[in-house]
Each structure stands twice: as C-alpha cells, then as structure tokens.
Amino acid sequence: MRPLLARISLDALAHNLRVARRHAGSARLWAVVKANGYGHGLARVVRALGQADGFALLTLDEAANLRQMGVEQPILLLEGFFDAGEIAPCYELRLSPVLHRVEQLAMLERARRDGPLDIYLKFNSGMNRLGFPLADLSELVDRARLLAGGGRLTLMTHFATADEALGVDWQLEPFLAQARASGLPLSLANSAALLRRPDSLGDWARPGIMLYGASPFADVSAASLGLRPAMTLVSEIIAVQDLAPGAGVGYGLAWRAPQRTRVGVVACGYADGYPRHAPNGTPVLVDGQRCGLVGRVSMDMLAVDLSGLSAAGVGSAVTLWGEGLPVEDVATAAGTISYELLCALAPRVPVAEI
Questions:
Q1: In angstroms, rounded to a whole number, what is the distance separating the alpha carbons of residues 204 and 52?
Q2: Residue 37: what pLDDT?
Q3: The whole model's pTM is what?
C-alpha cells in the first residue's frame, strides 16, 4: 500500500475551537467549514466542532449534508442563494442566507415566503468583493425587515487586511458609523481579527483557518497562538539515489547536486495536493529532522536532500506538513498560503482520524 496518509486530529480541531472561544468573549462563533472543512472532511470537522454556535459554509448541498447528519445549530450560507430556486430550501433547511446584492433581495421579494427567515445583510466596507454600499444601509435594512418575516436580521462585513499591518480600522470605523444606529447584531471578525482585535468581534465572529491549526499571520506562528495542527500529511521514502556532483534529479534536471549527495524519493506529488511550484529548499521532515526539497515536484513523487541524515533510507518517515512542520512554513516557502495547501488535499489521499 502506498504510504501517503493524511492524519486528521479531532482533538486538535476541538482544542482550536476552545482557543477561539476564549478570544471571542461574549460573541458567538460561526465555525467556517466551507471547502469540505478546509480539506479536512466536512463530516469529521463538524463532529469535532460540535460545540460551535453555528456553521458557515457555501452551498446548499453542504448545508443539506449537515442537516442529514443531525446538526441543529444555525447554518450560514456565506454567499446566500444564487437563484430563486434555492430560496425554498433555505426555509426547509432553516438556513441563514447572506444577501449581498439587490438581485437577491428582489428574488426574495418575489418568492413565496414560508415563515421567518434569518437574514444576513453583507456590506462592502472596502474589500470590494461582495456587499451592498454602506451608504444604502438604512434603506436596505428597512427592506430586509419586511422579508425576514419576524426572523433575525444581522449586519455583516468582511475584513481585507486583518492579518496585515494595515489592520481593520479603515473598514471597521466607517461600517460602525453606519451600522450602530440600526441596533442590529453584527458579524465582523474573521480568524485574524478574532485573535488581534477584540473590539471588532461583533455579536457573531467567523473563525476559519485558526480552527484547523494554522496561523492567519505571516509573522506569528500557530503554536505561539496556542493552536494545534489538525492535519498532518505523512509519507515515506520509497527509494534513495546516490548522485555524483553535477547529476540532476527529476523532470528537467532542474536541481543538480553540488557535491556527492544522497537524495530520497518520497511518495507524494502534485496529484496528492502538494504544490508543484514548491522550490528547492522547501522544508520536509525526514525521521523528524528538517531537510529540503530538491528538483521539480512530479505527479506522484518528490525528492529531498538527505545530506546530514546518514541513517535515513527507504522506509524513513516523512512529514510534508502538520505536527512538527507547520503548514505555514511549507506554504511560505512555496509562495502560497496554508489555506490553499489544506484545501488542495486530493481525494485519492487516504485519511485517518486520530
């Protein structure tokens, strides 16, 4: 059997939710479980995060799966419904749609409304992705109150630079200037704001990446935030090549040995979700010790420099990311973010719950 395996720690997921809870104070938590629970598996993530106040995701299919699993907490549709045919299931499944454009309001006004509906109105406070203009807040609140039919109405925005030096004030202050007068509950903070800006929590925070044990910050480790990695991607060395000086490895011979070098071939490649663009030197653990990627990542394999690891050989344990090797370190070396690596885990990779 191919040795590649993703280990998912349910205890780590539950621990990270407790960390989020400590930072949230009196705010309630939407656990963001979109993209198949950030690649960890929707069903197992929801089981592990069962103490969340609600779950936030993207599609009706995901929401229906949660209800079939017996989830009773509120479920937030982060992009709302996409056409009028998705409105009835919002009532049937007791979902809270996020409305962010006038066409959604118009669809809801035309639709048959079967009782109360909890609605989130999303406003564009500067990210310029989704959301109504802030200047229209008062008018849209009046319109949405009629559509909620007695359901709860919540105002929402999303921060573009909560994880960067620019912070959230440039968005938070204009949003609050418009929203406070409504007296409605607010949903504001993502993981970065939850960890750094308690004044931006609102009534419902929306932690995502921190629940999976990765830091939202480029300059702060997950461990220093008290987070534990939920996914550890492991494999083994399946072959060793002794390269003479100048000999290359992999497609294009893109890396050549500067001296006589032992190179280990690892059973993991881009078809498993490892980034093909990861450069030479991207960290990998072999038998618990850091070494570096060499050559191009291929579909099913990658190679590592075993210099200084004389005991390493075929069968040596390899960690691609996770326990002992933060996924952020791999992502930074590869010029990407931890979110992408976790979400990209391929369906062919076996998963074990621990």
A1: 11
A2: 98
A3: 0.96
Question: Is 62 in contact with 41 (CB distance < 8 Å)?
Answer: no
Supply angle C-alpha 12, 328, 223, rounded to 5: 45
Strand 153-156 relative to strand 119-124, pairing: parallel
**In CATH, 10-214 is 3.40.50.360:** no
Measured on CA atoms in the order 229, 323, 329, 297, is the torsion positive or negative?
Answer: negative
Tokens representing 303 are 């190679």
Q: 134-164: per-residue pLDDT in tens?
A: 999 999 999 999 999 999 999 999 999 999 9
Fold of 231-353: Lyase, Ornithine Decarboxylase; Chain A, domain 1 (2.40.37)
Among 120, 122, 251, 339, the one annotated catalytic: 251
Q: 212 catalytic, yes or no?
A: no
Domain boundaries of the chain, sorted by first residue: 10-214, 231-353
**What contacts 308, CB < 8 A, 6 or more positions away?**
289, 291
Catalytic site includes residue 122: no
- Could you give the CA distance from residue 231 to residue 113 in angstroms, rounded to a whole number? 42
Distance CA 198, CA 215 (A): 17
- The answer to whether 283 touches 330, Cβ cutoff 8 Å, is yes
In sequence order, the β-bridge partners of residue 124 are: 133
